[in-house]
Amino acid sequence: MKKKILTIYFPVMLLMVVSALAIPPRADASGLFGPLQTVSREQGGLNTAVGYLYHEDTYENGESYRVKQNEIYSQAAYGAKNIWEIYGRVGVSNMKLSGIFASSDHFVETSKDDFEADWEFFGALGAKVFYPINAVFGVGAFMQGTYYFTDFSDHASITSGGVPIKTEMKFENLWDADFGIGLQAQLPCGAKLYAGPYIYYSEADMSLSSDWTGTEYTKKDHTVSNQSMAGGFLGADIPLIRGFRLNVEGQFADRFSAGLAVSYTY
Amino acid sequence: MKKQLTGLIIIWALLIFSLPAFAGVALDTAQKSVNGVLDVLRDPKLKPASATELKKEKLRVIYKNMFDEVEFSKRTLTRNWNTFSPAQRTEFVTLFEQILENSYADKILSYTNEKVEFYKENKLSDTQVEVQSKIITSSKEIPIFYRMILKDGKWKVYDVVIENVSLVQNYRTQFNDILAKDKPEKLLETLRKKLNKK
Amino acid sequence: MIVCVFVLCAQGLAYGQETSFTVGPQDESVSQQIVSSAKATPDLTSEDQSKTASNNPTDELSEDYHEDEILEEYAAKIKEEKVEIADPLEPLNRVFHEFNDKLYFWALKPVAQGYKAVVPEPARVSVKNFFSNLAFPARFLSCLLQADFSGAATEAGRFTINTLWGIGGLMDPSSGKELNLQKQDTDLGQTLGVWGVGQGFYIVWPVFGPYSFRDTVILAGDYFIYPVSYINPWYASWGVRAYEEVNATSLRIGDYEALKDAAIDPYVAFRDAYAQYRFKKIKARKTKLTLSAPAAQQGKPADAELLNKEN
Fold first, then answer.
1. Residue B25 has pLDDT above 60, yes or no
2. pTM to 2 decimals?
3. C242 CA to chain A: closest CA distance, Å?
4. I need a labelling partner for B61 at 20 to 30 A (CA). Which of A60, A148, A250, B76 fits?
């Protein structure tokens, strides 16, 4: 009996693992990059922000799978001389991978196709420098690193030959690093427009586990990462009233991500 | 009827025009005195511990000029003042002044560059105003109001209200309690004992 | 009433004064009537002149104190100044006052001083801001119950801005000049006071400190709307409150000692300071509310009721 199930189950598992290996999980880029120049006052000061980014990307392994994330975060930053800034963020994000549980095998049914995980915490640190060329233009660079404190996990029931097996997919130790440069233009009204390219690296430990009749069958751990991916970003930072500023930004990689943040300058 | 009305208008106009003469003078007086105190406290030459006595002496000059100690003392005793003999009254004023100085000197000397802001003057009567100021420390703002009376053309402080608590009333309650049970001499003795304890 | 006037006049004559009279402690309302009816007399101006003419302190010292003239000059103000709180439990209160005093000097102050030496002031101020931000429900609710809607809106704005852009409440950008959303300094006890409930009598609770009867009753309400109360387990909640108290004390070491030192009778000094502080706050609230809502309640009747209750 056991042997029979094993022989049926094993190919399914293998299939899933193989497809999983090809995933470059884009659990990354936590939030907007923000304007290249710090919004803190010149003498040196604090600025805080709350932001939201809708993040979308794709990965490929013969077929396209789409990952979607909603990231909400709070940031505290310190900058001075209109030149440099360091910042820290804490936030939450969810994750949805479309179609990852789906199987092309007709004999295999899955309870659902998409991986959906709830809000997990992340933290990020970043730094940016800016060099003004003249009164309007300037160039800047930034780098940012993110780490997820908790793991994304979701489970699905895979039925093969009438036997449903609960399978859990988990992403642990997600982290990423971004680096970008860009050009910024300051408009007379005080708004800043900025754009540029960025590169990033992202990595996670993916594991797949399942058990049936109470026994854990296979637990495979793989470190998955993507090759250096590049993209572009474009944004505007507009002053509102009394120290508040609105920042809208778009990030383009395989897919388009967009977000906004409201910052307050002390 | 018309004459009366004109008369009223004239009186009213005179009052309006005479007000500015007083408005602001009390606040200026208080502000000048307090700034004098702050200057002494901020003076780098008086910073070392050896200069403390000299600092206290300078401060004493300023607040003797700023406060009307007799008015202050009278109001803390109210009707009980009349039960004191003139000699007792003199002693009371001196002792009370000394106690206040001893108690608040240290607090004032521990000043470390907080900002003092005078922002308002309220008229209480023809000869009395309340000057409103506040001390801005790093953790909070403390409102300090000076109630001043015009005597011989000079404005002097007769009550200090710190965070809504009037010093005069605070002492009045304490003295009332004591004088309700004992004679004036007992109060003077209590004050003497308190001074000697320091 | 006529008898009272006669007795008072006799007293005044005994001290060799012309037409003035001294005022007895219980007869304030009576004296008010006497004074207001005598308002038209020219005697006042002559007394005034003699007072202002004397520039010699000895003259002032030998003069008797005419409280009635002061009453006449600012009748409403002097009425405000006689704030008193009934103290039927005085012996018991004195015991607890002593206990709290020892608790402060032997326990709270040393801990606060040690804490102060280790933790820099900006951090302690941030912690104070954090707890102050947490106490938002009490202030918000109090504003609503006092029909102070602008105050409630200000509190809501403060909470949002300080939490989202003030690093969870550690910073307080709302109080700055730019945003100028000031903290509404009110609580549930004041709300009852604004509604006209008198302070009641004075109680000194061990550990918690002085409260009026009214404010004691409202303590339960305060407990339920303070988020810290909901921390499980119960000793963690009290631990946090104790920490909050230590932090707050570390920022005002010296205040208690100064008042105690300056006082002739510390117990009475603190009782009076408490009564004045609470009463004036409520009066200020009422004035503010009456100014912003002229059609609403009158402040004065409640004052008179308060004084009568306490006398």
1. yes
2. 0.76
3. 28
4. B76
